[in-house]
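Sharing a chain and its predicted structure for anyone who wants a worked example. Both blocks are below, sequence first, tokens second.
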Amino acid sequence: MDKKVMLVTGGSAGLGLELIKAGLEAGYFVCNLGRNPEKMAALDKEFAGRDYRGFVGDASDEAFVAEAVAAASGIGHIAYLFNNAQKSCFKAPTDFTSADIEESFDGVRAMLLCTKHVLLACGEKDTHIVNIMSTAALKGKKQESLYCTVKWGARGYTEALKATYADTSVKVSAIFPGGMNTGFWNESRDYISEEKSNTFMSPAEVAAQIAG
């Protein structure tokens, strides 16, 4: 019998990794799309012998996404897609660059592409798409103009997706967690200090709430 597959983007660390662990415990075959070769290789060793497969590549690259989703679909029906991958950029409106904009919008691009190919693979039925947002998708925040722009765009896409698949077997959910104590903040220490991020929520606790 085909296995039920959970597909997670950005699962090499933080909330994505905790979602992978929760999925394995729940009995899913978990596929992880991540772009850090070293971290992904370490996870291959950690989860060796379990129902896990990692795909190394950029989830905003459609050729990579199409290939990875096809492989995951060959394992079994993709019951869940967790769109989790996102880079941070917390700069003043006059400080971010074109490169910052491109990199930040890669997360939205990945969400659209992964969702598209999962829907095609499952025939637009019997799947649950879960888009990981942020409280930045609910309220404008100082020094988060670019991040809010990205997350509000992702929220708009999610609402449109819900409307498109209302009254079908495709479920669409959005999760709006606050700050979590992960490496997400490592490149933004001028904005969030390590001392402050240490007071944030544990990604394992957030994953448990989502999985529950």
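Comments welcome. The first strand starts at residue 3 and ends at 9.
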